[in-house]
Design brief:
Keywords: ATP-binding, Kinase, Lipid A biosynthesis, Lipid biosynthesis, Lipid metabolism, Nucleotide-binding, Transferase
Enzyme class: transferase
Number of domains: 2
CATH class of the largest domain: Alpha Beta
InterPro entries: LpxK (IPR003758), P-loop_NTPase (IPR027417)
GO biological process, one term: lipopolysaccharide core region biosynthetic process
Helix content: 25-40%
CATH architecture of the largest domain: 3-Layer(aba) Sandwich
Protein name: Tetraacyldisaccharide 4'-kinase
Strand content: 15-25%
Radius of gyration: 20 Å
Structural class: alpha/beta
Largest sheet: 13 strands, mixed
CATH topology of the largest domain: Rossmann fold
Distance between the termini: 53 Å
Length: 338
């Protein structure tokens, strides 16, 4: 476990050695509060798209399940006749220029892992750009009539019509303190100003705001090399396995594997880890075991993983009440722009 991972775990558990950092946390909180106020009152420029913008984000560090929600949103929108597009920062990638149109064939070194994964999963237009407003302009000019901003809650230069904040049910808001004394990017009160709070998994601690349950459900296996899909059962491989996860919270993936009855050894990597063949060599070549991974890891492992490698695909599931609320909000926005 890296130093950053140790610190993050301590922040969620409120370890005593973080207490001296509380004054810095209070300073960070004040800076973020003033920054948000500056955008809201017009002191800082905000670009408002001519089409509805749905921002998906969180106020904590670490994985919460934002990307599966973004994928769910684009599928849901497409099924209802919209032409959605995704704008994302492109973390971990370095493109020759921006905005970068991300296709299923874009090199992951240029796009970053999550944008490439979303392009492969959704089939909709995906643009990576550190300047979200510029990326959103590109999507709107290309004919997208709804823009979904992935991990965009703190990118206030892009105007938004709907804000969705995702919270990890198991971790909640940790010790409730801002960086570096805690895991929060913004004060807890920020959740009072979003349109909906979605809790991924069973909520272990009170949030003090109304929330909607969200679950990540396994939907099937995918052979990494061929991209062929297989059902969850029977297993297309024989355990025990080596399982790897370079995501915000690897334990969630390993818990899912255990629930599916899969045994083996678990290998947690830092988020956005740049895999190579050596990092995936867990057993001698003469005694290989199947390798299983997340969809986010798969986009970086396809060219370096051993032949018997598998991807567990998951999708977000949300209650009908949330779908009804979202449909009504979008209908209202359409009436206002017509």
């Amino acid at each position: 476990m890296s130093v950053a991972d140790h610190w993050l775990e301590a922040a969620y558990q409120d370890r005593f050695w973080l207490w001296p950092l509380r004054p810095l946390g209070m300073l960070y909180r004040a800076v973020m509060t003033r920054r948000e106020a500056a955008y809201r009152c017009g002191k800082r420029a905000v670009w408002q798209a001519p089409v509805p913008v749905i921002v998906v984000g969180n106020i904590t560090l670490g994985g919460t399940g934002k990307s599966p929600l973004v994928a769910w949103l684009t599928r849901w929108l497409s099924e209802r006749g919209y032409t959605p597009g995704i704008v994302t920062r492109g973390y971990g990638g370095k493109a020759p220029s921006y905005p970068l149109w991300v296709t299923p064939e874009t090199p992951v070194a240029q796009s970053g892992d999550e944008p490439l994964m979303l392009a492969q999963q959704t089939g909709v237009a995906v643009v990576a750009d550190p300047l979200r407003a510029r990326g959103a302009k590109t999507l709107a000019a290309a004919g997208c009539n709804v823009i979904v901003s992935d991990d965009g809650l703190q990118h206030l230069a892009l105007g938004r019509d709907i804000e969705l904040a995702v919270v990890d049910g198991a971790r909640g808001l940790g010790n409730g303190r801002c960086l570096p004394a805690g895991p929060l990017r913004e004060p807890p009160e920020r959740l009072n100003r979003v349109d909906a709070v979605l809790v991924n998994g069973e909520l272990q601690a009170a949030l003090m705001v109304a929330s909607t349950p969200m679950r990540l459900a396994p939907i099937g296996w995918r052979e990494l090399k061929s991209n062929k899909h297989r059902p969850l059962s029977p297993l297309p491989f024989t355990p025990p396995v080596h399982a790897l996860a370079g995501i915000g919270r690897p334990e969630r993936f390993f818990t899912t594997l255990k629930a599916l009855g899969i045994s083996g050894e678990w290998h947690a990597f830092p988020d956005h880890y740049p895999y190579d063949a050596a990092s995936l060599r867990f057993t001698p070549a003469e005694d290989p075991q199947p390798l299983v991974m997340t969809a986010k890891d798969a986009v970086k492992c396809r060219d370096v993983a051993p032949p018997d490698s598998w991807v567990l695909d998951v999708e977000a599931t949300l209650p009908p009440e949330f779908e009804q609320w979202l449909a009504a909000r979008l209908a209202t926005l359409s009436e206002e722009t017509n």
